[in-house]
Amino acid sequence: MAQNNSIPEFEPDDTVEDELDEPRRFKVLMHNDDYTTMEFVVEVLMHVFHKNEAEANLIMMNIHQKGVGLCGIYTAEIAETKVSMVDSMAHAKGYPLKCTMEEV
């Protein structure tokens, strides 16, 4: 019996498109309250969101004056992780700091 060692020829399927959907993005927001200190909010922004001191102070003032501040925009898993980190840090210090995420 003869073996056929030739490699079959494949032609690209023109009907298949290599389109990748962009991942959904989420805003991570921090909310103002009457108990969490401004210093702690700045600390969280620097530690969790890697903001420098000037950026952290600007966001903290937005939170203080407008009631909410944008900490960053991330994919779902990263946003969820950051919200969880903020919640853990706030709980450990006894602050009611609220951090949420919403789809962009």
Please give the structural blueprint.
Layout: E1 25-31, H1 38-48, H2 53-66, E2 68-75, H3 76-93, E3 98-103
Antiparallel strand pairs: 1-2, 1-3
Helix pairs in contact: 1-2
Name its key features.
single chain, 104 residues, alpha+beta, Ribosomal Protein L30, Chain: A, three-stranded antiparallel sheet, 3 helices, 41% helix, 20% strand, elongated
Overview of this structure, please?
This protein has about 100 residues and is an alpha+beta fold. About 40% of the residues lie in helices and about 20% in strands. It is built from 3 helices and 3 strands, in the order βααβαβ. It has a 3-stranded antiparallel sheet. It is elongated. The mean pLDDT is about 90.
CATH class (first level) name of the domain at 37-98: Alpha Beta
Largest sheet: 3 strands, antiparallel
Tell how many strands the DSSP assignment holds.
3
Largest sheet: spatial strand order: 2-1-3
User: Count of DSSP helices?
Assistant: 3
Q: Percent range for helical residues?
A: 40-55%
Gap between N and C termini: 64 Å
Helix-strand string: EHHEHE
Low-confidence stretches: none
CATH topology of the domain at 37-98: Ribosomal Protein L30, Chain: A
Spatial extent as radius of gyration: 24 Å
Summarize the structure.
The protein has 104 residues and is α+β, with helices and mostly antiparallel strands. The protein has a domain of 62 residues: 2-Layer Sandwich (Ribosomal Protein L30, Chain: A), CATH 3.30.1390.10. It is built from three helices and three strands.
